Protein 1
Amino acid sequence: MRNHTTTLLSSTAMFLMLAASVMETAKGQSAPAKLTLKNTQHLERMSPLLHASYLKPTGLEMIKGSGYTESTGSTILIKPGEEFTPNALRSPDNGRTWTLLPANPPFDGKLPHGYRRESFPLFVDPVNGNIVKVVPSLDTPGLDPTIVEPPVALEAYYLRYRVSVDQGKTFLFDESIVQKGKTPENPFEGVYRGKNGIFMGDVGSQLLRTRQGRILIPAQACKLGPDGKLWSPGGGFTYTDVIVILGRWIEGNRLEWEISQPIEADPARSTRGMIEPTIAELPDGRLLCAMRGSNGGSKDPKFEIPSYRWFSVSGDGGFTWTKPEPWSYDDGAAFFSPSAMSQLMKHSSGRLFWIGNISPQNCQGNNPRYPLVIGQVDTGTLRLIKSTLLRIDTKRTDEPGVNLSHWWSFEDRETGDIVVAGARFSPDYNKTSPVVYRIGVEAKAL
């Protein structure tokens, strides 16, 4: 009875939040929310909530892609250090306990030495319930599997996908993502396997189903120069354009793929182009894309270029995008943000939030990746509402530095809280302190 009552109360709370959302949407922009840091939980191991998604359009069952972990306060039936190739982990109770779903079929079980199939968070289509698994891939014989981000990846990365129609128990196929009319060797306009790679950004680059029914994959592709080789016109180590891949469900539970026009940076304003897009659909049907840029490199050795966060807008479902410009607060002032991941996240209250790093001074490339903040986006003006900003975490006085990046966030369906699971990484990423933050969302009066 106690659990039933708790669930009933939670469902009632969510209903009221949704009702408030409908009323506010009818009036226009949702009222600013009051955000509070309700809890910070320090763990011994990475939380199983990292990269977990809800398994169905409703309910508390969760699923996550290949990987295993333990968390203080949770029961998980996977031994630390156990080796296996799982398809997924599944939780029946909102992430409290987890069981293993073995890979079926084991697509990655007999790959040639040096080949890679990397894990990316699973996407559950909120309408048909299909699970889409994007698999960043490398077919590189003999490549040392211990090398992190090998340079050859910039030329050889490509994308595969898998679909499950039975809640992750089995996957129907494992295929390359290829634009309609193209080939695996030339999967997208301007992208050639072995010349310039196309790949996912960090996990903030989550998939999205639009109201038009298309599945959007926010990706990035390395740029080719006039000589047909990798090109970095900004003088950075890498240079990418953002490309949104648009899928349409067809027979056989496959997706037919198209791509957007590239979102291209001005190399004089961002030395590494546009990186790690995160997208959201707005109440009026427009799409907002927020991206990281960068300064530094051979053409900006003193880091004099402003370290802005960038945004672009689509009015046609993701096929075409505006020229990227510096993102700003609702008072019109641009803010500094390091070259690091971020995430746009829609909340059941109807609000749109952004999570990322904001710095009080101009950044230097990737650094500093603190503080970590969350704030509400005005879905009319598309600006970040400064008064709603909440600092989630930052460097402590006894620390030489900290990297607050590579986290994962989602809305808890029981409470409406925003959960951010990840770690406090040392500046060199050699030390990891797992953590889970829980952020409360309270609507302010109109």
Protein 2
Amino acid sequence: MKKILSLVLCLAMLFTAAAAETVLNGGENRGIVIDKAYENDPISGYSPTTGLALSDVAAQAPEGFAGLAVTGRYMPILVQIDNADGGIGFKDGKVTYNRAPWGVKYADVVYETPLYREGQTRLTFLFSDLLPDAVGPCRSARLFHAWLREEWDCGFAFYGQQEYTATNVPAEFKKYGADVKADGMLLFAGTVGSNHPWKQYYTAYSKANGKKVDLTKPHHISANLAAMVSLIPYDFEAANHTWLFTDELPEEGDDAEAIYVTWARGDLAIYNSLLEWDEDEECYYRYMSDKKGSYNNVYKNLRYEGEEDVKFNNVIIQFTDMEWARVDAPNPTVLGTGNADYFMGGKHLTGVWNRDTMSERTVFYDENGEEIRLQRGRTLIVVMDYQSENRQVSYE
């Protein structure tokens, strides 16, 4: 059903008038006055990040996993994840250069952020309910990712970092004290010597599921989060990041069966995505574009029980201003207030986001200025710099 609908939507893009799509305005003044929210109290037995019953999550946990649903300890870990070639890859002769991630099926939250000014993006996965023993491909961090770690105040796994004057990630960690918190056992940098205790939990993979695929450097590094979390002192408490959830599908809002996230044109169109609503499963599936603009490449989880399509119950577009210290060094505005658009239950809703200090969580508000209630399950947050003429989010 998903594939058929995807093809129908692709044809619709070619033959339907442009007016059928609604383009989001990331810079408009929505005039929303927020009722400032701070921390929510976690609900016993339920995940603060997915809203799911922890007993249900634990029943699906593979052997060797850690995480809140398995151990009862709330200790999220953020991981920098490759998105080269749109997280799909390509085939060259008989060899498939697969760029699909592994472990994403267990992520609570997925962030997509700009990586290069031209339109390439990078992903950050947040794991909390379950911490897998293999996640990847792990890649490097930018300043925004250091700010994201400060927001969650949790463990952070990354393989490389920028250290230029205007985009110095280690200096940013030091500025906020992340390098000394929890006895220095929060920042799991992968490009360190073997004398660091977490280094052993990074491994290099070359094949997946026994298939003829090539995970060439630097798309081959895996992180064992279940082992890394054991290094974080038990008396360290991560920031309370409990979201609000509801069991009811939204009735308000306009219909949104297809969301088009556009980062670039031409050859870099492979970073553009279509999120397609599946009414039967009540979720959005993500399809990546090819260079011709056809969304035929479903975004998959590569390992564990074979390949599996990745689904999202909530899609949040967080619009922000963007400065570029370098062509590969995006610095989005993360403090203050900006526009946010929400897609859940096949509906589109409008609102704003707010975060006043680095130690606060980003709160998403509805059109009435109240913290929005999400659907239970996985959330995709797209941090979109709306000023660029190439960037656009639309839906129909």
Protein 3
Amino acid sequence: MKLNAISHRDRNAKILATLGPASRDAQTIRALFEAGVDVFRFNFSHGTHEEHRARYEAVRAIEREVGRPVGILMDLQGPKLRLGAIEGGSITVKAGQEITLDMRTEPGNAQRLPLPHPEIFAAIKPGDQLLIDDGKVRLTVLDCDLDTARVQVLNAGVLSDRKGVNVPDAILPLSPLTPKDREDLAFGLSLGVDWVALSFVQRAADIDELKALVNHRAWVMAKLEKPAAIESLDAIVATADGVMVARGDLGVECAPEDVPVLQKRIIRACREAGKPVVVATQMLESMISSPVPTRAEVSDVAGAIYDGVDAVMLSAESAAGQYPVAAVEMMNRILCATEADPLQRRTMQAVQTWRQTTAQDAISAAIGTVAETLPVAATVAFTSSGASTLRVAHERPNAPILSLTPHIDVARRLTLVWGVHSTQAADVASMDEVADHASNEVMRHGFGQRGRAVLIAAGTPFGVSGTTNSLRIVWLR
């Protein structure tokens, strides 16, 4: 699917794809974009700053070539909790075995293991579980104090050097931002990333901490992968600019059968509040090594689209897999086929959105009604901060959303949002200019068909955030 300055995707949901060793060169990145990627994810758990800089420059070169914004999301690694060293590299444990965990630095053995994380000892209590190596070995706490814990092994397995530790039953007293994250964040913001994803969010205050550092230079996405985050779901959704259902660690810390339920709950909370929501992890996992996905994976992706998510994400499939472009092409085909099903819109609209008592939301609600009544070519949202476009997308109207903003950073952030064809455009100064400009842009971007209506959401004074107060209908001639 070759794209140029006047083209647009023939779907509403967006594709977020991770760049990595399999997609590091400019040619592959361009192929991924042409296959359907709307936003590129830079995973700062891997890669050097110079590697990320090269990928950033490749994405921005594509943006200049096609004449439309392309989004970039940087994903911070977050705190990594790990065991210390073990004599011989590993030990085999059996169910019922008791082991002492402590903060001593010498290598561990079958009787004791180093766990150099005081925040874990400060938070755990008897009965809590510790999950080692993505839950391959589970431990339960028998008793503990501020620097030791006696645990019992729940299942046989192997404990190896520096394997990861998950603590699903406790809220850990630690910042989600490590020194590495702060250094990476400063670098990413200096490049000009559009979204910053925060790993291992536990509470809304974690988002506030990151937002203070970002200082409006990007939008902030909360990755929900801990049970504690679900307990604070509404507050996190209200505080974040967007939310990611990070099913990898969520599936480790929660029972597997709970993950689909939690995914539905998170999507519904975001849909009701009008916050962009992304479903991630293992969506087309088999395509890391296979040119085709499993039928279950296809159904998983389609299920997220029936729920009306803003975007679905590819991780290792596009970053390290053997078929990165084919994975994006397949994702694009699934999205298009699912959205072509009339049942998809009816299922998506089963979620009742929360409307604020504002003129902006009244206009957005009216757009949804008009788009069901008239032959509408597109809805045009003039926006300064992006808020007007978000509220229109919140209603999931039955017409494409052409978002016009004079600010390129806002245009890039909106590339992640459902149904939005985002572009930078000149500012306007009068309602007549609004109508002419909107009609021209609809035709230029390939949405137009003479005789069809264009719905225009705008406000006065022009160029001021939050002033959307008018809905105008014009006809293409």
Protein 4
Amino acid sequence: MSRISLFPITTEVNDKNHLVLGGCDSVALVGEFGTPLYVFDEPTLRGKCARYREEFGQRYANTLIIYACKAFINRALALIFMEEGLGLDVVSGGELAIAKSVGFPLERVYFHGNNKSPQELEQAVKWGVGRIVVDNFFELSLLEEVAKEAGARPDILLRLSPGVDPHTHAHITTGVVDTKFGFPMAQAEEAVARAMASSFFELKGLHFHIGSQIFELEPYREAIGIVFRFAAEMSTKYGFSLQEFSPGGGLAITYTDDSPAPTIGQFADVITSTLLHRSHEVGVEPPRLVVEPGRSIVGQAGVALYSVGAIKDIPGVRRYISVDGGIADNIRPALYGARYEAVAANKVEVDDLEQVTIAGKFCESGDILIKDIDLPKLVPGDVIAIPCCGAYCLSLASNYNASLKPAIVLVNDGKARLITRRQSDEDLMSHDNV
């Protein structure tokens, strides 16, 4: 596999042997914007949106694709998703505020979360979000109070936990019995009965989300079967109508050459064929389908650029290449054991390679971005480019060691636009009182 195959679709190597993203020389981007720098490729981002619309639309026309903002969102990306006809899956008042700030159609916004505050629910009801995805009995009661006070009747989905293991990392498994998310199936009937008995909201359907970075598609089939059998039972007992169904998202992406992920088409085929089969099997009218991809839309579009600093040799053990970012802008390797590929952006195609470990600059021994990777001989000032950094890097970023969060640029057709400026020292201290 080519060393640049995991990078955005516009990626090239120019005659200077530099990595080119969206028509922009990455070394020139570093010269203009500094490092660490996150670069998002607009054609890749829009292409993933289009692929989701096409793959699901041709198999099941009654589908809405909503982007899971937790992977990463800012105002510029929210505008792109609006232009591409997607909805948004938000999990906080902050994500909802970003959507509203750009005029995103709030009827295409779904509000998730296992502990929404009264203020967040009030905001969601007042602003008229499309669906509130209710996670537990406490939220059912709280939402009744909020809706009664507002004189509104919001549409809701119930999030179920179908008890299916997607065989991903334990930290990103969300559909098993022992999870903080959703109603376990043993409590799901009571949740439906209470929701249908309430006059303060309208139960539209059911939702589940079994996890993230999922390579195996069979767990989706299993979970869909469980939920559709349950829906049929609720129809018989309570007259429940499954108007809308969401299997969440969670599709993996390929981070390293040795771990290829399923395609969007394969994912769409499993979801839609199983939905149609189970609908027919249990006698339920096929509902509207809502799919919630995050990582698989934004992951490949993002590239992290770092400058090389200190180099440490431990003879017979390891060569450490330290860069000016790390755990504060990408905690995934430390948190999940996530693995990445990388290239030297200022000398991409070089045959003479050596094994090194890319270390971050922060005061944690676990601040290692990539362990044991073959790269050209590096010197201070070289630029390291890590692909597939569009998801869960910036959204999990921190100011650890009082570091400054990086700048973000959007590239397309040889032009780079700053969409989030680098934090300043003043930003870092702006909320302090002395």
